[in-house]
Amino acid sequence: MPRTTRALRSRTALLALAVLAIGPAPSAAAAPPPAQEDSVTHRLPVVSPTPQHMARAGDDVRLARRAELVVGAAAGDTDEAARRRVTETLRAHGVRDIDVRAKASGRAPLTVLLGPAARPDIAKALGGTKVPEQAEGYALRARHRTVALGGKDATGQFYAAQTFGQIIAHGRIAGAEISDFPAMPLRGSIEGFYGPPWTEAERLDQVDFLGDTKANTYVYAPKDDPYHREKWRDPYPADKLAELGKLIDRASANHVRFTFAVSPGGSICYSDPADVKALTEKLRAMYDLGVRSFSVPLDDISYTKWNCEGDKAKFGAPGRGPAAKAQVGLLNTMQREFIAKHEGANPLQMVPTEYGDLTDTAYKQTMRAELDGAVEVMWTGTDVVPPEITNSQAEKAAELFGRKVFVWDNYPVNDFARTAGRLLLAPYDKREPGLSGHLSGIVSNPMNQEGASKLAVFTMNDFAWNDRGYERSRSGRQAALYLAGGDERVADAVQTFVDLNHAAPTFGEANWQPQSPVLGPKLEAFWQRYESDPAGAIRALRPTAREIENVPSVLRAGVSDEQFLHDAKQWLDATELWGSALGHGLAALTAAQKGDDAGAARERAAMESLAGQARAISVDPAEHHQLGQVKIADPFLDEFVKGVQDRT
């Protein structure tokens, strides 16, 4: 059965933005908001990604039914995507009459100025709010009856428009000033996993999501696309080319760079001019389609053998140094003869064969000595799936490759054996603040399940935007609110579901993120209390059992993201069964405490049946090549069942 390609119910831009205007509810899962305090009346709303600077500028600005949107007189100065987002935001908040003008009239109850930060009217309205010098930066100031949205460039305008949507709540625009820019130039996702590639609908959904979260990079590198790897010399068929063209256009509309990757290392003859020409032609066809960012990954290949005798004759016996010499020759040719000679093309990206360690070798020595300085080098950390990335590690990687590295972070990817049966939903963690000083960017390698990946990738984009201001719990709550459409109760259920699917394995035996950091200790505490106060322990755990059982129905009713619900279906089904099993297990213990052996046996049998049904749910083979049974909150739920069996 092919993977689903059904049309997804489109979210308006406003839904994704206005959700985040609502701050986190007080709960055990929510962290205190950042220092965005109101010195006048109300706390400022939480904005995601976390701005570099946000402060109170004055009283909140009231929305009205009528507003002016001032876009300036110069053609092309105002970004069209930003203009659309501001208009959609205003209409969704009840503004019915929007007068788009070149110059403010001074008579409107609300005036929104949108365009370059240097435009005189915007510069005046921004007052003392600093305009960032960095690319993609923006400044925002809401005061009296005027909101100024000024971008350093067109993308900065787009991001200012998104933030505008996040500071509106309850008929008011927060009286804020914001000076903001990304700490890392490159942020987003790389479709670089093994297994069934994403569908067209999933890719379109992903670039919309990246635009929503101020990410600017999507790398097309699906390992199982034959034209990306095995058939790299062959041109894409017309239907596939049209599909990619649609995706490129959608990415541009979201200010996301579509980066086309082609991986020739498994069969290329570096010394053969025909192969160099074939690679050049592959890139040229995508340039003609509108691509301006390119990558040549050389990962997951062997440098202990050549693909042709010509390479042995030119570079010598296979090995680290000769492999690097051959690769550098190819990459420098692509950068200097193709990228540099095509208008608007961004620097070439590459993935080295040695992408996941900090050992100096002949391979790395050749790379740093001879690879063109413009080429971006990707690095996965100290392992394929690193348990942490520190500043010292990133600094060492930059030293080894002779440039800041671009991190391909293999999270939340679930294409390797230890992730079989899992969704990886935990917020980003164990990446050290300050990495922006050593990295050119971070991209996530998501799961085969695109929609389910958003919870983790949301937090990764938050970190890449402002690593020094990143706060894991706050970001996790904002990700839950994003998915929940701003509904606090639904967001609570999202976070419970995240806790059940929190484990993040490495290639070793340990997880770099623990499973169920909320439920696990709660069940351990339950058994400890049960020994001395069984009735109290059972009473305290019952709400948790009901909460887990109800999570699927709350999410299915409250989450509008159909792709997420599709991707999470088996895990939601298992969650409902496990929640019910917990309830019957508590009922069995209650009956046993009362001496009702028959009742305890009935409830225990019901628990065992439900747990068995949950364990039997398997991954859809159309979705994933890592087959097996769905895992939820393991081993804690199995241990609970065993504990009930032992006591009844």
Count of helical segments? 20
Main β-sheet, spatial strand arrangement: 11-12-13-14-15-16-17-18
Measured between the Cα atoms of the first and last residue, the distance is 44 Å
Largest sheet, if any? 8 strands, parallel, barrel
As an assembly, this protein is: single chain
Radius of gyration: 27 Å
Q: Quick check: average pLDDT?
A: 93
Share in β-strands: 5-15%
Tell how many strands the DSSP assignment holds: 20
Catalogue the unreliable spans: 1-41
Which descriptor suits the 3D outline? Answer: globular
Share of residues in helices = 40-55%
The chain-level structural class is alpha/beta
Keywords: Glycosidase, Hydrolase, Signal
Protein name: Beta-N-acetylglucosaminidase domain-containing protein
InterPro entries: GH (IPR017853), Glycosyl_Hydrolase_84 (IPR051822), Hex-like_dom2 (IPR029018), HEX_bac_N (IPR015882), O-GlcNAcase_cat (IPR011496)
Domain GH84: 185-468
Describe it:
42% of the residues lie in helices and 14% in strands. The protein has 648 residues and is of the alpha/beta class. The strands form four sheets. The chain has an eight-stranded parallel β-barrel, surrounded by four helices. Helix 11 links the parallel strand 16 (376-379) and strand 17. It starts with 12 loop residues before the first helix and ends with a helix. Residues 1-41 have low confidence and may be disordered. Keywords: Glycosidase, Hydrolase, Signal. This is Beta-N-acetylglucosaminidase domain-containing protein. Residues 185-468 form the GH84 domain.
